[in-house]
Sequence to fold (796 residues):
Amino acid sequence: MPKVLVVDDAMFMRTKTSRILAEQGYEVVEASNGEEAIQKYVEEKPQVVLMDITMPVLDGIGALKGIKEKDPDARVIMVTALGQKSMVLEAIRAGARDFIVKPFQPEKLIEAVRKQCQT
Amino acid sequence: MNDKDNYQEYRQDLEIFLSEVDELLANTEENLVELEKAPSDAALIQEVFRAMHTIKGGAATLGLQDGVEVTHLMESILDEVRSQGRELTAEMVDVLFAVLDYLREWRNALGGDKERPSPEKILAKIREFAGNESSVAHSVSQQGTSSAVPRDGSRTVDLDGDGKRIYLLTVRFKSDAPLLSVRAFQVLTLVGEVSEVLSSAPSLDDIENDRVSDVLRIYLTAEDDGKEAARTARGVQDVAEVSLERYDQRVSRDNPAASGSVAGGAGNEAGFSRDESASQGYTVKKTTLGKTVRVDVALLDFLMDMVGELVIDRTRLTQIATRLQRSGETSAVGNEIRALAAHLQRTSAELQEGIMRARLLPLKNIFTKFPRMIRDLAQRCGKQVEFEMAGEDTELDRTVLEVIDDPLIHILRNAIDHGIETPDERVARGKPPKGRIRLLAWHEENQVLVRVEDDGAGIDPEKIKKAAVKKGLLTEEEVRKLSEKEAIELIFMPGFSTTEKATEVSGRGVGMDVVRTNLERINGHVEVRSQVGLGTEVTLRLPLTLAIMRALLVKCEDLTYAIPTSSVEEVLAIKDGDIRTIQGKPAMSVRGRIFPLISLAGALRDDKWKRGSSERYALLTRTNDEPLALGVDDLLGEEEVVVKEMGRLLSRLKGIAGATILAQGDPAVILDVQRLI
Fold:
């Protein structure tokens, strides 16, 4: 089963996301800030990354760029709040493949991850 | 969709494209003039590049191969300058100007549904030019075959006859999709990875600025006929519907060129780039709601006329109220009507002001063409001119703008032809070889001032005096008495021109006298100040707004009078049998109504009942709510006139509302029919 890296500084969001994915049978790895995310990406080589935008140490955009530098083909889905339009635009410019808007329904999350695993 | 619908949609798209082209060409012209002064200004080069790029995208979308080819070559030249350090020479700028002229012609042909100019000549010019230095054609073919994503992020696409087709991918989003603009951006980005996106509506620029609707149209070409692009779009979240259709086929009926092969060896490229600076694309503006609308001037004029009608109704309401009050019993109703009339007056006054404001346009509208004109004229006269403009955002009534356009052209021509000296002459006089012309505009109290300044030779009063004598306008005696200032004023005399022979530049049959007459028609004024050797300053004083009315022009004893059309109900030819005598006074019977007939000539002479012998027409009107027929000699037509005050003393004359200067330059008195009797 594909491996997914869930990056979020908020423990609640992170565990909730992880649980939904684990229930679908995905193997889940977690990171709580951008720097950790880059490190985990290199170590774990997940198929898909779910990346929160606002995080301490290194934010989601920085982490996305860091990961893309290591692996240009990395599949990163941004997890965003409604007010972060310009950030998401920047993320897509930087190579994010998709985005989902918080709060999301489990089906949306599952669908987005499944799509990235397929392509 | 049937052919007719397709054609209509094509015309609609074309119209939007053309209005964008107009804007882009005007900007490009300005930028080229600037660029000539500062050939290494990267921002200007980028601007021109972007304009060409945008036109190319739109042209490709509409299947206009000639436009694609020309803009593409122009873009290539600029690209060499922009990124390969090629020097922008004066010859290069000339070629760019020639391209601009071609595109104007091309645009006008498209707008008028006429045959488009052949691009061969201009293409040859560019290629020949390119051959002199490095090869544009070479660089084009290189671009066409190089990596899939060229340096600026744009993709290349072969549009020739047996090459790829253009497809329209329509993506409809779910109506409740969050962050719609980002979603659209995502679709455009992903589709751009699997196809060559030519342009989109809304454009990338609009999307990034949140100007989106739930439909995104992407014009693209692809090896697989857009199948992968459609699949990709379908895979994106919040996408409700995706459709794919051949686009070029829909327009090829109207554009044989769209499916024909392209002349010339250069490959065709229509770029779409993801970098913000060059990504405006062809925006279909109807999908985004701006804050301004275009309004036909005729509509504004109509509204203005309607306001005039309102004012008349208000006057009548007041009269009715007065009559009611006189009758005593119904004074309550009378008061109510009077209050209503007062309110109507305020409302109509505000309405009138609002429409006046809607008629304002920035001077930019006529200023933009001047830099290019100055450049060309200076070149032709062998003079060097630095041209500066300021205050082009100053607003004026559009009629004023129209009226000052020709005079300004004339004054600027004069400044170059007669004002600025040749570089040699200037150096000999201790001036820099390059002359300077400034065009300034600003507000001053209730007026707008527009000034043309040059640092040329100035006007020599002695020369003017001599010329005036020579032309027989004045005698030696008369001229001797003139002050310097008065002598300079002579240039406004009809038939005056200081040069022996009209030159190619200034001589167009219009002189400063025409300039002055034009300005006086709109209550404006022109002043000239000049100092020999130092330069000349011509200042136009213009009214901010105009009191304009439609008037019927009539002839009476060889004089022309203007009568507001709003006070004329009907015009009749007088036949002898029509005139009766009632209580000893002449009257006309029209469809059973009796109109006392008074003579305009008589009324003006305080002998209103005396019939003029040559009165052939009667204007049916009313004064103080009483019907009245006004006899005049002849009808000259209708005209929009600008009302001018008559001055303190004359304004007290009964029955005269003001004066105006007619289109042909003759003055006319405007009559106030209400007060005539």
In short: Chain B has four domains: 3-155, 297-358, 362-459+498-543, 548-676. DSSP finds 23 helices and 22 strands in chain B. The two ends of chain B are 67 Å apart (CA to CA).
